[in-house]
Specification:
- The protein is mostly helical.
- It has helices spanning 14-28, 34-41, 48-53, 61-70, 75-89, 93-107.
- Helix 4 packs antiparallel against helix 5 and helix 5 packs antiparallel against helix 6.
- The protein is globular, with a radius of gyration of 14 Å.
- The protein starts with 13 loop residues before the first helix and ends with a helix.
């Protein structure tokens, strides 16, 4: 296929990255589903990732680690993905600005 797997550094929203990652695998892997992806990553709830992607659930530390390890992110990619999550879930402007700065530093 000429379409490449989504690269985490191209995103400022972890939900968009996960959505595109899922769509890429759905298109390129026979039988791929949210249930299969969730099970592969070690989640007991088959719809957990769909709820996360849809903005109905957030990622905690344990689920964040399952995803970064399970989808094979290297150390720098995992750090960037973690900052995406923290940026998205920050409750105030100070937190958003802090994590945005960390994201920007890793992107350069």
């Amino acid at each position: 296929m000429d379409e490449k797997i989504p690269h985490v550094f191209n995103y400022l929203c972890y939900r968009s990255f996960l959505s595109d990652y899922y769509k890429w695998h759905k298109k390129n892997t026979y039988g791929f589903s949210y249930r299969l992806m969730a099970g592969t990553l070690g989640f007991t709830s088959p719809n957990f990732l769909k709820l996360v992607i849809d903005g109905e659930r957030n990622l905690g530390k344990e689920s964040l680690e399952k995803i970064t390890q399970g989808i094979g992110l290297n150390k720098l990619e995992a750090e960037y993905f973690s900052y995406l999550v923290f940026f998205d879930q920050a409750r105030d402007t100070v937190g958003k600005n802090y994590y945005y700065g960390l994201l920007a530093s890793l992107r350069s």
